[in-house]
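Supplementary Methods. Inverse-folding protocol.

Structures were first reduced to a discrete structure-token string of length 214. This string, shown here, constituted the complete conditioning input.
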């Protein structure tokens, strides 16, 4: 039986002996709260996109309240009307390389092959001592103008060094991405990333009847 999902309902959820159980909301289509046999509670949104049934995990409780999860579910449903598939977007984000990935790709597949040994040493020093600590864990789409401005400003005492780091990022590590002090172009593909892994989603779950995010 469907119920309006509120905090009181969540407090009374009983964990199943195995697997998981979903209680569906009676007001927002596809919105539900899931509890696993381990007692982990999370909010989900089940929907169809291009005829395929999909299930998206909105977030866990108690980090996310029932009210916040409901609002997010309604926002996601509006996005579906506009052609936005949240599960595909999440999968695409996981496929996108980090700055560390692209820096390694640049050094190994370009610098050591096409540059002089002294230039490679300089580039490797900037990558390992400056770029990786500041931006390495970020995915390409997450790196914005402010990140680059902050990094550039941290070397204001040595403007030549600051410009070299920025040039290395915009011309070598991120070629063709529009990365620089100006606005970066969204969805650009780095040459090191196979087509379909940045900007275009590769569907690895087509055979599954239900596509679900963890």
């Amino acid at each position: 039986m469907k119920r309006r999902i509120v905090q009181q309902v969540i407090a009374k959820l009983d964990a199943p002996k195995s697997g998981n159980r979903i209680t569906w909301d009676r007001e927002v289509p596809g919105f539900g709260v899931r509890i696993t046999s381990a007692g982990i509670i999370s909010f989900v949104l089940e929907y169809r996109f291009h005829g395929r049934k999909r299930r998206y995990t909105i977030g866990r409780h108690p980090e996310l309240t029932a009210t916040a999860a409901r609002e997010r579910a309604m926002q996601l449903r509006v996005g579906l009307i506009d052609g936005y598939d949240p599960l595909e977007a999440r999968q695409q984000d996981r496929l996108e390389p980090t700055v560390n990935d692209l820096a390694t790709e640049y050094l190994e597949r370009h610098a050591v092959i096409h540059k002089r040994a002294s230039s490679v040493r300089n580039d490797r020093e900037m990558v390992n001592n400056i770029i990786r600590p500041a931006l390495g864990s970020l995915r390409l789409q997450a790196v914005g103008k402010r990140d680059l401005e902050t990094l550039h400003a941290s070397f204001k005492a040595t403007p030549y060094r600051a410009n070299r780091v920025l040039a290395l990022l915009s011309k070598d590590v991120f070629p063709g991405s529009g990365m620089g002090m100006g606005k970066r172009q969204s969805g650009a593909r780095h040459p090191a990333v196979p087509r379909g892994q940045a900007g275009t989603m590769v569907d690895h779950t087509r055979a599954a009847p239900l596509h679900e995010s963890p």
